[in-house]
Amino acid sequence: MNYIKINDNGAIKEIPLDEIETFCKCPECGKEVKTDLYELCGMVEETGEMPFDIAVWCDECHDEAQTYRRQLRHMSEAYSRMPLEKLREVYNIISPYFTPECYE
To answer: How far apart are CA 12 and CA 28, in angstroms?
Structure first.
């Protein structure tokens, strides 16, 4: 059993991790989001990120972002009609978020 220790007025208590409620702030709107430690552990394993660096979005912001992501996937045809100056602008906006290893 994994647990944390807390000092409760001089008495040390051991609290199992699965009994602890954890929260974070949505990185978009700042709304408090209840998190699941087991899911976070899975995300750490999947992404290699530190647990304290993983962002958990609220349902509303997540759904809105997914809508934009779906729309952007279907817009790739538009690149063939864009002038070079606009392609550069789009590239400069997107490139910091591009990770080539995702496509290997």
So the answer is: 37
pLDDT at residue 101 in the model: 63
Reading the block at residue 44, the tokens are 């750490």
> CB 92: neighbour CB atoms within 10 A?
9
Strand-pairing partners, residue 13, are 6
Cα–Cα–Cα angle for 65, 74, 95, rounded to 5 degrees:
65
Task: Report the pLDDT value the prediction gives residue 28, as an integer from 0 to 100.
Answer: 95
- In the block, tokens 């990120």 appear at 49
* Closest C-alpha to 90, from 77, 79, 99: 79
Which of 26, 28, 46, 24 minimizes the C-alpha distance to 36?
24
What does pTM read for this prediction?
Answer: 0.63
User: Could you tell me whether strands 3-8 and 11-16 are parallel, antiparallel, or unpaired per DSSP bridges?
Assistant: antiparallel
Q: Left, alpha or beta for 9 (phi > 0: left; psi -120 to 50: alpha)?
A: left
